[in-house]
Amino acid sequence: MEPSDQVGLLDLPDELLLKIVSCRVITVQDLGRGAATCTRLRNVIATQDLWRKKIEQYYPKVWDQLPSNAGIQDWRQEVQIMKQLEVDVHKLVSSLSLRLYQHLHLTTPVYAEIDALVSSGTYTPIYIINILRQIVDDGEQYDNMTNKYYALRVMSHVHQGACRREWEEFVARPSAEQSLEVGAILMARWFQPHADISIKQMQAHVSDHMELFCSATELMSLLTPNDRSIQELLLRIYYTLEIHYDRIVAGCHRLLTQGPSTIIEEMLADCERILESQKDVPRPISPNPRYREVSYAIGMVMQHKRYHYTCVIFGWDRECRMPSDWVQRMGVYNLLYKTKQPFYNVLVYDGSHRYAAQENLEIAPDPRPITHSDVGKYFKKFNGTHYIPNTELEQEYPEDEPVRNELLRTRGCSRGVCYSTTTSAPKPATPPEDSNDCGLFSFRPAFLQKLANIKIFVFLLSVLVTIQQALASGYLNSVITTIEKRYEIPSSLTGVISSMYEIGNVITVIFVSYLGSKRRIPVWIGVGCCVMGIGSMLFVMPQLISDRWSIELETINDTDSKHICRNARVRDDTSERLSDLGFGTLPDLSKGVPLGSHNSIQYGKPDNCIKGSRSNVMPVLFFMLAQLLLGAGGSPLFTLGTTYIDDHVKRESSSMYIGILGEGNQSSPFLSSSASGGGFSEVTVVPVATAGPCYYPCNTIMPFMILLFFMCTVVAISQMPLLMIVLRSVDEEERSFALGVQFVIFRLIAYIPAPIMFGSVIDSTCLLWKSSCGEKGGRCLIYDIEAFRFR
What we know:
The protein is built from 32 helices and 13 strands. The protein has a five-stranded antiparallel β-sheet, with no helix packed on it. Helix 23 (521-545) packs antiparallel against helix 27. Among the domains are: 301-394 and 412-449, no CATH class; 453-549 and 615-676 and 702-786, Growth Hormone, Chain: A (Up-down Bundle), CATH 1.20.1250. It starts with 13 loop residues before the first helix and ends with a helix. By secondary structure, it is α+β, with helices and mostly antiparallel strands.
């Protein structure tokens, strides 16, 4: 053919050109470029039938959903609208991961943007749903999962909004125009927003859906606008689907004006909270530092050892952060490491979110994708062995990727299979920093773990409390008079010694209760026991370093006759002093009692003038220092021990276990007093009755004991409720500190000043002080009983 005989594209008639550009291989972009070449092509391409054909070719689902009487005049403009919507929708979906990572639901601003796009044209809801469905169906199932996740969330909102408008139009029609098939389709599309259900498809299978149409008709007969139950049902559907929170709030207020409802009130409060949280500006994602005790990483597919479900990790905590009632309900304290171990947020294949302890998880031997609707919120792809986190999750756990890769490499995971011979996690070289297993430092053998029981802990702590209270309170109180005699100490000074225990406790309890509550409570208690042991040894030191204690009545050697006259003078002086106090006189030794051998006669006054007086400074200092150490060492027992027990038992059993601890505290004075009641030395019989105070029987001892019993009972009954009120009235991490502050207040107001004040009051009733060489001594010999009673 000659060149002059060749026919160009523009030589073809318009009808043939229209046929060519209408072919499926000619895309919308090709039409745009062709229209820019010449006027004739532009005129051909501007034909409305061409653009209507292109919508049918490239957007078949949109074409199926457009009504036959759509009344669209400019099909080319509709294509342009769809192309612009593609850009806007992709931009919106891509931005949602960063904006909604810290939210559980779509926020009000996001709803506003979606509604603005939807309202931009008559058929834009159909176009937007088609675009979102393309995003969901694009590529492999486990690629680009984050965008697919948010596309589904947006699609649900747009789809149900469109269904709502269609339903309102359907209900507004006359009954004769309401089609059973259309109503059934609307109901099916409402409850299945992700399903591709169209009226044309369903009309082709009407005979297969007669049962569905019947059920839909029954449901439609109930949908009356004035029926409260139907309105409440609709709000609950919104709430379940996590959409239209503003409509839920308005509807709840309207229903509550008609009458109270607990369900409506709870739903209203939750939706108002969600709407309020949506107003918050998202905080920057802060990196979560990784700790050595965390064995696993985000994105790993795990298997639960006990319940055998498969899950994927999307977050973790260094230790359990759930409230105590959840911990009790889930039986966390039955685990080996209890709450002091890493806990993982996981998505389970059954669609649930769970919080699993590290010791209950193991790497899944056969990793498979997790069919959970929220997987795309945190991960962008599944590569056969694990999930790859999206940008936001990776920013939150930046150090997890090398750990995850190393774990999978060492376990030989590839192509969806892990070939390791064991499915357990690599155990750390040392247990977690605050683990509850038994041992010393890194020595924690398995046979000792049988003792890792809260009952054993309560028993041992009760023994410690009993010993501590016996040393600090019971034993000291039972031997206080002996100490006064032994070291010539007045009651006011022994009161100071007794108060030193409380002073030592006050000095340390605030620091111990605050710092000890953070970590290693048993270690703090053990250190306190060591300090108490040092204090106990110091308490014995005065007995070891002092001279041997001689009995108060001294034997006079008869070989030295010069004491005979002196002894008579001492006796006469004592008799006169007792006579002045109203106790009568002693019989004359020269008349009533033969002197005989001087070795057999004992006298009431030691020869201090001859032997010299003893100093009591060093014993008192030892006693005070010992009491300080006993108080400091005992401060962790009740403050930290109480909260440790409360953490490791059921809430309803906490008061019983703490009461057992208090029983050891109360029984210690009885045990220590019994142990100190047998000290006797060189008991002799006076040959002749001596003058002195007569025995007065105490006839009111029983009423006094009964009254004291009731008073102690009332105090004991109130102790445990008051303690539990403190434990339940503050945050869990501040319980030990709150108990420490309470104990400080008790000691400053009562326990410290009381012994000092009572010692001074007792000394003020003294009638006869022991004297040495005519000077007042350190202790009282005789008290004024009447004054003692009323002071």
